[in-house]
Specification:
The protein is α+β, with helices and mostly antiparallel strands. It has one domain (about 5-205): Alpha-Beta Complex (YbaK protein), CATH 3.90.960. Helices cover about 35% and strands about 25% of the residues. It contains six helices and nine strands, in the order βααβαββαβαβββαβ. The protein has a five-stranded mixed β-sheet. It has a four-stranded antiparallel β-sheet with strand order 1-2-8-7. Helix 1 runs antiparallel to helix 2 (about 40-60) and helix 2 (about 40-60) crosses helix 6.
Length: about 210
């Protein structure tokens, strides 16, 4: 196993379209070190391109800024504490995206809610805020089928304009930047909370 200091690679790129390819080429080289199969590399590159491009286009729109990309060289699914340790950041700044299902499909597509990775969602509180009668959590397999993404890699950045309602827990207001998944397990993006809000057009909620 790699030492903790060698399990992550951080890359900060200017928030401009021409620099997205730099992150993509870096990812391709790191994937080679991990010996990942070509189809997995292709999925990672697609997720990275979508996440970075969405951040560039929707949060910055040509204005100056920086996107922080963190690659985990471990393919395992980590707990919040493990992810924070790998990233070298406080656990409360690592957020996960949970899939929440409405009582009736007629009410709309599922909800993507970003909450602290160490917390559990309070569905009754979330339902009240969103005006829903009842909400539920799908199984891991169901969440993957609903989003087309692997658990541990479900990301709002990869699911923009797909009909999902996107929510962010009020706790994020306490942080300048937070880490969220980039759309594949082992790929994390750090964004300013204000930029994430601009990208995803979130509904602020009390969800924990």
């Amino acid at each position: 196993m790699l030492p903790a200091t060698e399990r992550t690679v951080r890359l900060a790129i200017p928030a401009r379209p021409e620099f997205v390819s730099v992150a993509r080429h870096t990812l391709e080289g790191l994937a080679g070190l991990r010996g990942l199969p070509p189809e997995t590399v292709a999925d990672l590159k697609l997720a990275l391109t979508e996440a970075c491009a969405n951040a560039v286009n929707h949060a910055y729109g040509g204005a100056a800024g920086t996107i922080d990309v963190v690659f985990e060289l471990s393919a395992d699914k980590h707990s919040a504490e493990e992810t924070a340790a790998l990233l070298g950041v406080p656990p409360e700044t690592v957020y996960k995206t949970i899939v929440v299902v409405r009582e009736s499909a007629k009410r709309g597509k599922p909800i993507l809610c970003m909450i602290p990775a160490s917390a559990e969602a309070d569905l009754k509180k979330l339902a009240k805020v969103l005006g829903e009668k009842k909400l539920s959590l799908p199984t891991q397999r169901e969440a993957e089928a609903l989003t087309g993404l692997q658990a541990g890699g479900i990301s709002t950045l990869a699911l923009l304009n797909k009909g999902f309602q996107i929510c962010l827990d009020e706790s994020a207001r306490r942080h300048e930047k937070i880490h969220i998944s980039g759309g594949q397990r082992g790929l994390n993006i750090r964004l300013k909370v204000s930029d994430l809000v601009a990208v995803t057009n979130v509904t602020w909620v009390e969800a924990i």
